Amino acid sequence: MEETYQKMKAKLSQVVPDFELRYKAELAHQINQLKKEKNAVILGHNYMEPALFHSIPDFVGDSLELSRQAAKTNNEIIIFCGVRFMAETAKILNPTKTVLVPAEKAGCSLAASITAQDVRNLRQQFPGVPVVTYINTYADVKAECDICCTSGNAAAVVKSFGSDTVIFLPDEYLASNVAKETGKHIIFPTRLPLANSPDLDYQLIGWHGRCEVHEKFTVEDITNIRRQFPDVVILAHPECSPVVTSASDFSGSTSAMIKYVEQTTAPHYLLLTECSMGDNIMAANPGKEMLRLCSIRCPHMNEITLEDTLKALQYIRYVVDVPEDIRLRAYKSVQRMLEFSN
Fold first, then answer.
1. Alpha helices in the chain (DSSP H)
2. Interhelix angle for 254-263 vs 275-284, to 10°?
3. Which of 49, 185, 283, 335 is the most exposed place for a label (fewest CB within 10 A)?
4. Region of poorest pLDDT, from 17-26, 184-193, 238-247, 326-335
5. Quick check: helix, strand or coil at residue 13?
């Protein structure tokens, strides 16, 4: 346990109070011992709180990287320290493995914004139009699409179809940013009387879903921060609104943001995304100064704790299953995403 504590302290002493570090190091030590005994692998998303992120995961990353790791693991148990749709993706790729998510309720406002029936309705409304679905969706929605994508490859996936029109679901802001990047006109059919607009010009069909974290960032936030720190470099996730990404210095997936900070030098950085990731980057890059002026914690990611991860392993609880008929159809769209990314 002391060795675990010292390793965590070396990275997290500026981020986590010492009394909390000692307590969490004990939990991390128990988890690391137990995962060996039970042949488990732990996947940790970039949005995990620092004490968890820097102690127990065997692999860390964004949805795409963790999907890759999930696809090739030989461990009998996969513990996904992330929200439920991520754990579902691991199960889609590994039907014979036991997949656990540490929290009973680890939802996602974006994933909850659309249903499989919504996708079927859009296909009926726009017959023959290919459907691209963001990986931040549940398995039944993935089963209704042609290919999944991540925030990092969304525009490339849309372009790959070579189609005049593409349906892109469900993130309103990511879709708008993709439309801007690809030069496509976008519409949101849930807001327009399409039957009365036969000559409406569009090439991208979006949905009204939003991430409850990223929709909170505003241009006013950026203006205020630049007033205080004129030399700050601001990085925004593509789930932020187009006006926010345009006002930022860089926009990219969580992995792209991490690489940007690692490969550049600036007096200050500010991340417009889930705030734990800023702490994780600061812990991994002690020479880089991360501002904490726009700290918004995802309530769903916050459900994932070391305590519950330990209990998940001890009791094999919160098992994630996907009905086989849905899994088989969803597998095709997820596998296409992985092949495209490779």
1. 2-12, 18-37, 50-53, 63-72, 84-93, 116-125, 139-142, 154-160, 172-182, 219-228, 242-247, 254-263, 275-284, 306-315, 324-341
2. 40
3. 185
4. 184-193
5. coil
- Gap between the Cα atoms of 174 and 168, Å rounded: 9
Q: Report how far apart, in Å, the C-alpha atoms of 51 and of each of 30, 76, 82 are.
A: 14, 25, 14
- % residues pLDDT > 70 (the chain): 97
What length does the chain have?
342
Question: Alpha carbon of 176 to those of 91, 127, 238: distances in Å?
Answer: 30, 22, 9
CA 126 vs CA 2, 176, 336: distances in Å = 60, 19, 22
Tens digits of residue pLDDT in 48-91: 999 999 999 999 999 888 988 988 899 999 999 999 999 999 99
Domain boundaries, the chain: 2-106+301-315, 111-210, 214-284
Residue among 50, 36, 47, 142 nearest 89 (CA): 142
Q: Which pTM was predicted? A: 0.92
Return d(Cα 214, Cα 63) in angstroms, integer. 16
